[in-house]
Hints:
The chain has helices spanning 6-26, 32-43, 51-58, 62-74, 96-105, 109-118, 126-141, 173-177, 186-189; strands at residues 78-82, 90-94, 147-148, 155-158, 161-164, 169-171, 179-180. By secondary structure, the chain is an alpha+beta fold. It has a three-stranded antiparallel β-sheet. A two-stranded antiparallel sheet has the order 1-2.
Amino acid sequence: MQELTTLKLIERISTLLRAEQRKKYSALGLQPVHIQTLDYLASCNRFSDTPAAVTDYLGLTKGTVSQTLQVLERKGYLEKQQDAADKRSVHLKILAPGQKLLKSITPFDVFIKAEQAIANKQFDSITAALYEALVALQNVNGTSSFGQCKNCITFSEENDHYYCLLMQQPLDQADIEKICREFISVTNSGLV
């Protein structure tokens, strides 16, 4: 098993998610924050549908949320409504086009396919499950693994000398501990 910590696996999976989001949302003229905002508003109750709540939930600045809300309002995905009791408060309501947009973009096909690829496997740890999820996501998405050299199928060690068979280059101790974009896992090679 590749020696990656749970945190590194989560970070790499998150990176793949963000890349998939950017690709999908930019085709719609939107950014991930726009969809995250709509998704939050579709999930929150009437006490939490305010700009301040969006700011807190997404962990963003007031300025970023304000700009995000302006874009979504201009595109006809949401509207601001003044609170009936407290005229200083504003509630955010998703309009029908915003609801339709949310239904059309989630979930990501790449994640559905990756989940199907690992659905029936048993794992002995969260790290093992995350590693398999990462490999499945990378296979489905056609992205590089970026694994440690020492765990790559093209890594060679003979008499305490390290060598990359793919790049036809010698490796030193520091090289084998670092990640490489040319990494090929046993799973990716089709040998499993």
